[in-house]
Amino acid sequence: MAAGFDVGEFLEGFVDVLAALFEVGSAGGDLVQEVDELAFFAGFGVVHVDDGGDFVEGEAEAFAAEDEAQADAVARVVDADGAAALGGEQAAVLVEPDRSQRDVVLGGEFGDRPGLRGLVHAPSVLYVYVSVKHRECVMFELSEEHREFRQSVRDFAEAEIAPHAAEWDRKHYFPVEVVQKMGRLGLFGLTAPEEYGGSAGDFTSLCVAIEEISRVDQSMGITLEAAVGLGINPILTFGTDEQKQQWLPDLVAGRNLAGFGLTEPESGSDAGATKTRAVLDGDEWVIDGSKQFITNSGSSITSCVTVTARTGEKPDGRPEISTIIVPTGTAGFVAEAAYDKLGWHASDTHPLSFGGCRVPAGNLLGERGKGFAQFLATLDDGRVAIAAVALGCIRACLEMSVQYAGERKTFGVPIGQKQGVAFQISDLKVMADAAEMLVYRAAALKDAGASMADFKQAASVAKLYATESAVTATRIATQVFGGYGFMEEYPVTRFYRDAKILEIGEGTSEVQRMLIARSLGLPVE
Prior knowledge:
By secondary structure, the chain is of the alpha+beta class. It is about 45% helix and about 20% strand. The chain has three domains: about 5-140, no CATH class; about 140-370, Butyryl-CoA Dehydrogenase, subunit A, domain 2, CATH 2.40.110.10; about 385-520, Butyryl-CoA Dehydrogenase, subunit A, domain 3 (Up-down Bundle), CATH 1.20.140.10. The strands form four sheets. A six-stranded antiparallel sheet has the order 1-6-5-4-3-2. The chain has a four-stranded mixed sheet with strand order 7-10-11-14, covered by helices on one side. Strands 8-9-13-12 form a four-stranded antiparallel sheet, with helices on one face.
């Protein structure tokens, strides 16, 4: 914060924003008198009320005021964790404008992305912590722009994917031409900066697109999810300017795809057990090893794969894991024959082998030894995105079941009039709504810049619930369809086969439960 901070302007803006958001009084009113009214919102998880003694004490870092008029305005840097971590990490400040009255206002930057908000009234030191962003996350609602975008993606999916999905599934065909149409629609560049051809949109928009594509075909849904989350994001987040300029324009446009080579024959959830090695030989990395289950890694438009490899050992003996970009066509790099999978027949998934594969030293992605941290950061977004795939699956099961139950008759009446069927379909509606809330709450947390701890927990919760619900939803839908649910001519059969992997990819259900438990302070192993 600069020394020329205008306390009066800050307070005036704070009151206006507070009044507008929560309708607790007219702008310019006595903020202290509004504490009780604000506390009402605590029941909704919007406002946190607590004893602020420990919060205030020891958190001060004074800055020099330019003149005597501001001498009593002391700004203090606030640790977001000390404020119950309801919002993201912010450059928030405590401002004490009147030492005699000792009304202390907690606030941050005003504008498009307001920071932390709150109020302390000493000597009781009761504080009300208000996070605008937390409120948006708890009470999320898709904007009109999101709803219009959803319809455009749905129209595309119904016209370009739904009529062909069964044939692609039957033939194990990866439809490159449709993937590139998705690129021309801008789906791969939704969250990418404009300088690389993206639209600089939000994560919520990406989840909307993934959900709608997955509603008609999970294979294409996971292709989009992996292309952005595992192909584009690692390079966008950790790459050098040169690497971004080299790879991102074609990836963002959907002209090319990229894979993320993490999983190995003997290491999946335990990424620290990576056996693939990369040795620096002069100005080249020499890579030896193998990867498996790598999406978008062997198609005709795959341009590169980012690969995790052991590049040495840390002082404590743990393996040093780094990430390296390997272009397709590099000698010694082979995408083996595609897997014959239970589901996702129209997605591109291969085992990869590396034998004396040489790439330039400059292909190191990010810092040496940071590959494990990069992998974890990549998975956080991916967990929410694959939960969006699951949400699309649940919605499809609900829609198919409602339609079939209204048309199929037994004993002269539609089966939807039978409690045994209707109640199961009711469960599908509950799953769809609950999964939607969890997926878009997690997406909203990311878009709002929430703390990493909050986002990680929300991502795991969304992933766990949505994916396990998707598996249950396909079982219910298959049961509703009866014998027809066992026939390949009905889409529900494909959805049934496709769903199981959702509980495994981007971190198994067991891993999600472990992460959630740890986030609650339970040190499980």
